[in-house]
TrEMBL record:
Membrane topology: Multi-pass membrane protein
One Pfam family in the UniProt entry: Alg6_Alg8
Transmembrane feature ranges: 138-160, 172-188, 200-225, 255-275, 350-367, 374-392, 412-428, 449-468, 480-499
Name of the protein described by the UniProt record: Alpha-1,3-glucosyltransferase
EC number: 2.4.1.-
Pathway field: Protein modification; protein glycosylation
């Protein structure tokens, strides 16, 4: 029998009323209902953003990423698979040649069939270049929306179900909203126009498979992610080191590694089969995936090479082969601490931090990084939002700000501001209470002042970028200032997350410790 609450005079007193919770209704209905409701809202937001311009809208002769994706549909639906990556009369690789792995090509083929069924002119060979009809744009936007709903959303649900087994339902609902209303991903996929939701969805599926102990499924999902976008390699050190560390702790490590290797090879062979009949065909595809001739960076991106190029002219001082080696060495060195940690002490929590640290290392130091590449470390940080809420809030701000010039060029200022505001409302609707880390930058004198100064400068740069013309001698001055500001924060964030990974409490290490298999 439940115990009654009595007042001092012996009469029954009213039970205390629980405080009003922004997420009460959703959490009361359970994880599945929360996910469905938030998903519908997330799809509505994506649809609203898709009504704004896209990359290269109305700017011939090459337009932008929207035209690139449409052109790949044109090529894949009109030419045999073996010619998709080969330069020829019907496939001029200088005009948005396909430069992603085969799974992207298959995706383009499937979407191209849809466009050809409803609007044949949008994918007809040659004559469809620069096609921007209303129905064509509507169908293109729908392909991204459906890809998001069919791949990224289920993967997010898979992750939430396996990661939040014993957490308050209100915090689970909050985390679902943070993942599905990721402002960076929405702006790039549904504004700028790309299909990052597919590779990121497959990556999230692979992460969830790790957390539930299905390592073969992990290998299948992550190989598919790599076969869709080569930037998924940003996460490869974390997957490799974590799975290796787990296998080495077992009674038969060679057998465990062999099983995972077979899963990777079989998946790879199935996806790449059309290009495995000859070495030349395989190398032809690989050459398209690594465009080293473009240089170590393009445009203004908040990574090490671009930021330091203000003082050190890397492209003039070093040859491309030298820069390839230097960037590889720097990336490996930056990834090494988190990899070593997971090889010798694998844990689910450490794995999530490893994903964040390896992807940030790639973003900061690897060859040919784009502004949009911040999506990789930002995804990993999103999965850790409940562990590092304050730092995640700051990272979201600077990740968005690092793409601000790109989004302004695409005329996406209003969605940028709106999604930023929406994220702020969601973030502050229920701040998760987490145990303070033993290490925090707030313990360092002057850090809070530095962070506030960064923020004020960023606000000024927002206004300056929109209202003042840069000097003719330095047309990209404001872009460079934004890059420097964001880079400085990313470095501080990377130091913090690497240190945190190496300083888990013994509670987390013992909770995830895997027993020796008999």
């Amino acid at each position: 029998m439940p115990k009654k609450n009595h007042s001092g005079d012996g009469t029954a007193a009213p039970l205390p009323v629980p405080p009003i919770d922004t997420w009460w209704w959703l959490s009361h209905k359970g994880t599945t209902t929360s996910f469905l409701c938030i998903s519908l809202f997330a799809l509505l937001i994506r649809s609203a953003v898709s009504m704004f311009p896209y990359s290269g809208a109305g700017t011939p002769p090459k337009f932008g990423d929207f035209e690139a994706q449409r052109h790949w549909m044109e090529i894949t639906t009109n030419l045999p698979a073996i010619d998709w990556y080969r330069n020829g009369t019907n496939n001029d690789l200088t005009y948005w040649g396909l430069d992603y792995p085969p799974l992207t090509a298959y995706q383009s083929y499937i979407h191209g069939l849809l466009l050809r069924f409803f609007n044949p002119d949008s994918v007809s060979l040659f004559s469809s270049r620069g096609h921007e009809s209303y129905i064509g744009k509507l169908l293109m936007r729908w392909t991204v929306l459906s890809s998001d709903a069919l791949i990224f959303f289920p993967a997010a649900l898979f992750f939430v179900l396996v990661y939040h087994r014993n957490r308050a339902k209100s915090q689970v609902a909050w985390h679902i909203a943070i993942i599905l209303l990721n402002p960076c991903l929405i702006l790039i996929d549904h504004g700028h126009f790309q299909y990052n939701c597919i590779s990121l969805g497959l990556t999230v599926g692979a992460i969830a498979a790790v957390l539930c102990g299905s390592e073969v499924l992990t290998c299948v999902f992550f190989t598919l992610a790599l076969s869709h976008k080569q930037m998924s390699a940003y996460f490869a050190p974390a997957f490799f080191s974590h799975l290796l560390g787990k296998c080495l702790r077992r009674k038969n490590p060679i057998l465990s590694l062999l099983k995972l290797g077979i899963a990777v090879i079989v998946t790879f062979v199935i996806v790449w089969w059309p290009y495995l009949h000859s070495v030349d065909d395989f190398l032809m595809v690989l050459s398209r995936l690594a465009p080293f001739e473009r240089g170590i960076y393009e445009d203004y991106v908040a990574n090490f090479w671009c930021t330091t190029s203000i003082l050190i002219k890397w492209k003039k001082l070093f040859t491309t082969p030298s820069l390839k080696f230097m960037s590889l060495a720097a990336t490996v060195l930056a990834s090494l601490p988190s990899m070593v940690h997971q090889i010798f002490s694998p844990s689910n929590e450490g794995f999530l931090y490893g994903l964040l640290n390896s992807s940030m290392a790639f973003y900061l130091f690897s060859f040919q990084v784009h502004e949009k590449s911040i999506l990789m470390p930002f995804l990993a940080a999103t999965l850790l939002a409940l562990k590092i809420p304050d730092h995640f809030n700051h990272l979201t701000y600077y990740a968005l700000f690092s793409m601000f010039p790109l989004l302004c060029r695409d005329n996406l200022l209003l969605p940028y501001l709106t999604l930023h505001l929406l994220f702020t409302l969601i973030y502050h609707s229920q701040l998760p209470k987490t145990k303070a880390s033993s290490f925090s930058f707030t313990n360092f004198p002057g850090y809070v002042f530095l962070l506030r100064t960064h923020f004020v400068i960023s606000l000024v740069l927002h206004v300056v970028y929109l209202t003042i013309q840069p000097p003719q001698k330095y047309p990209f001055l404001f872009d460079a200032l934004i890059m420097i500001l964001c880079f400085s924060y990313f470095v501080m964030f990377a130091i913090y997350t690497n240190y945190t990974q190496w300083n888990f409490s013994s509670h987390f290490r013992s909770a995830d410790k895997e027993k020796k298999q008999i």
